[in-house]
Model the fold of this input.
Amino acid sequence: MNSALKPLILVVDDEVDLVTLLKYNLEKEGFRVLTANDGEEALLLAEEQTPHLVLLDWMLPLMSGLEVCRQLRRSPKTRDVPVIMLTARGEEADRVRGLNSGADDYISKPFSPTELVARIRAVLRRAAPGLSDELLRFADISMDLAAHRVRRGGRDIHLGPTEFRLLRHFMQHPGRVFSREQLLDVVWGHDVYVEPRTVDVHIRRLRKALNETDEQDVIRTVRSAGYALDEKGP
Done:
């Protein structure tokens, strides 16, 4: 998918470490990310770039998340942008206040990145169905993430789960070279120990599936560096 078509998420929080973590996890899932550390900056960015969704912390310096949400709702440019409130407040009354201020959903800290991404996708599906049915394209390869289907030149490509995740990552970052270690982190996860050479095995399987009928090999091996999705071939 062209990067311009990837959903743009505005993350608003004054906890720098949390913002870094959220940015990493959201970009890994194929989103583009803008960040702001206070409400005033958030409103300026939202007006300038009109994100597809705002992740908004309740407790912010200068202006509360509730007030930011209200102002987003007043502006013609951002009144329809979905807002998910992030907060340590778990009381039902606080949740109601957040929703009454115009928020679309509400998630209490601490939360898992997996849960947050699922909630984001659910809100985006309701707000803009076309964004959540992400269709990735590269050369003659198309990948429908919603249907979990891959096609090349009109034929179906049958991939195992690991090969599917590898191809998804490559198609979300075409042309970029990833080391085996980076691919292990993204595809297998930080907490799983897998030999780096395992990546080579799955790359071979992915190549075999994609190049079944002697098509051009779009997986490029970069000596001493890793692999990339590239029409220049291996």
Q: What stands out?
A: Residues 162 and 187 are 7 Å apart (CA to CA). The chain has nine helices and eleven strands. The radius of gyration is 20 Å. The longest strand covers residues 8-12.
